[in-house]
């Protein structure tokens, strides 16, 4: 599961608030006074905003903290305009010291114990999820709060994929899971049951299936189609300043001799030209590319020895002194201009470790890590702390991304997640999930034309279009 990039537009609050009131006939509530609940003809009962617990899926990186705080302020501002009984709005990263709580399951016992008696709904949303409070309250009031409900915008896999550990291989579309960006909700009875019997919601098909809620949307907030929506998204990712300059990023590509003629040419045809500083690291020095042999033998799986040699070289005088290090595989497709835009939001003086976050054994006190195929981004400060800690590979063929995750966990350094990095191919993700993204990377050349995939999904200017727009424009290019 994942999380994702954010920006709130407070100047639009009044517009959305008034529009919501008119759209759903709630002007009377404002005229009468500060409302304490919401009623509708199809609702099971009135819903008091105090019965809703909002959990913003925040992260401890300073940029994400600021974004989550803005989202929290916006929710409370809207609620205050409606009622004196305000909802609880919590930031996920502050609920406990367990970095694994982003996966939600380890957090359920706390939510059950803290809110099981006085609340009806736990609503999860991402930092960039805009919420129309009146609409959301009316939507939730349609469902019997005393029953088990799992609400969201459903996504489906078209084929079995590593993203979900190849689950439901015979019929992957039978499993529906929520698009986190649209917000999703659990009724308190379901939260309590999961906690008590330690079961996942699916429960081998016996648990409540995800109920589709059309009002939970990922439409752009300015779109005409968003009028009925309780949640919306920004059309573009935030630009926090000028894009990071090319000279501030050093790119390390991991390769090996057998892929010099197969994978490296793809990089040279696609994204290599956007890098000012780039080196290829291999088990064989080939001056035609050129590649650099770091003295680490090639391994069939895991590349921990090679990755740690790259980290050491990054801090040496052998390469330019840059603020950021990007480590990718030789079958990673990436948009460096989009990465430059994204990195404008992060402070390189902080220990930033950025990419697509995965987790290992999170419910049993495990650790988070950046999955390597989508690209791993480190600030110089993060690399300094990693190497100064003395953390090392237990073998050259150990999984480098997981070993780095263990190191970061031991140091108390967070892994920062961006849903714009992808450790698999575009077809391995639900179409609706990619439709509201401006992706930064994909991984693997298996059964695809990687140059065509790059041109379709990743080739454009710094500011980027939505994936839907990219898909339409790519049909002409391809």
UniProtKB/TrEMBL annotation:
Membrane topology: Single-pass membrane protein; Single-pass type II membrane protein
InterPro entries: Fringe-like_glycosylTrfase (IPR003378), Nucleotide-diphossugar_trans (IPR029044)
Location within or outside the cell: Endomembrane system; Membrane
Parts of the chain that traverse the membrane: 15-33
Domain Fringe-like glycosyltransferase: 243-449
GO cellular component terms listed in the entry, alphabetical order: endomembrane system; membrane
Keywords: Glycosyltransferase, Membrane, Signal-anchor, Transferase, Transmembrane, Transmembrane helix
A GO MF term: glycosyltransferase activity
Protein name, per record: Fringe-like glycosyltransferase domain-containing protein
Organism (species): Amphiprion ocellaris (Clown anemonefish)
């Amino acid at each position: 599961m994942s999380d994702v990039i954010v920006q709130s537009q407070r100047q639009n609050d009044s517009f959305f608030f008034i529009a919501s009131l008119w759209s759903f006939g709630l002007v009377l509530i404002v005229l009468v006074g500060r409302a304490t609940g919401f009623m509708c003809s199809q609702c099971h009962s009135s819903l008091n905003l105090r019965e809703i617990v909002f959990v913003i899926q925040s992260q401890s990186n300073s940029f994400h903290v600021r974004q989550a705080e803005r989202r929290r302020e916006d929710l409370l501002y809207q609620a205050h305009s409606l009622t004196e009984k305000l909802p609880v709005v919590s930031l996920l990263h502050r609920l406990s010291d367990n970095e694994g709580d982003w996966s939600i399951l380890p957090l359920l016992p706390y939510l059950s114990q803290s809110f099981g008696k006085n609340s009806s709904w736990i609503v999860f949303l991402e930092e960039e999820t805009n919420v129309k409070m009146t609409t959301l309250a009316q939507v939730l009031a349609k469902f019997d709060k005393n029953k088990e409900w799992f609400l969201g915008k459903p996504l489906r896999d078209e084929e079995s994929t590593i993203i979900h550990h190849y689950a439901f291989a015979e019929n992957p579309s039978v499993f529906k899971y929520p698009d986190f960006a649209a917000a999703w909700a659990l009724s308190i009875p379901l939260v309590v049951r999961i906690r008590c019997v330690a079961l996942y919601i699916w429960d081998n098909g016996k648990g409540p299936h995800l109920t589709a809620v059309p009002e939970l949307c990922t439409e752009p907030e300015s779109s005409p189609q968003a009028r009925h929506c309780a949640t919306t998204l920004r059309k573009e990712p935030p630009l926090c300043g000028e894009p990071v300059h090319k000279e501030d990023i050093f790119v390390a590509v991991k390769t090996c001799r057998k892929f010099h003629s197969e994978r490296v040419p793809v990089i040279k045809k696609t994204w290599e030209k956007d890098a000012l500083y780039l080196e290829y690291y291999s088990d064989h020095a080939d001056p035609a590319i050129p590649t650099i042999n770091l003295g680490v033998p090639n391994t069939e799986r895991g590349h921990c020895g090679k990755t740690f040699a790259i980290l050491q070289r990054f801090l040496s005088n052998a390469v330019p002194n840059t603020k950021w290090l990007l480590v990718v595989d030789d079958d990673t497709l990436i948009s460096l201009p989009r990465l430059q835009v994204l990195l404008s939001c992060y402070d390189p003086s902080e220990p930033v470790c950025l990419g697509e976050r995965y987790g290992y054994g999170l419910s049993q006190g495990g650790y988070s890590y950046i999955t390597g195929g989508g690209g791993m981004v480190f600030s110089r400060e993060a690399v300094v702390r990693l190497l100064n800690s003395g953390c090392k590979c237990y073998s050259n063929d150990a999984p480098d991304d997981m070993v780095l995750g263990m190191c970061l966990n031991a140091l108390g350094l967070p892994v920062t997640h961006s849903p714009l990095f992808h450790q698999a191919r575009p077809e391995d993700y639900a179409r609706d999930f990619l439709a509201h993204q401006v992706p930064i990377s994909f991984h693997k050349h298996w059964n695809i034309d990687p140059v065509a995939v790059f041109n379709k999904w990743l080739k454009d200017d710094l500011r980027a279009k939505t994936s839907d727009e990219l898909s339409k424009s790519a049909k002409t290019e391809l």
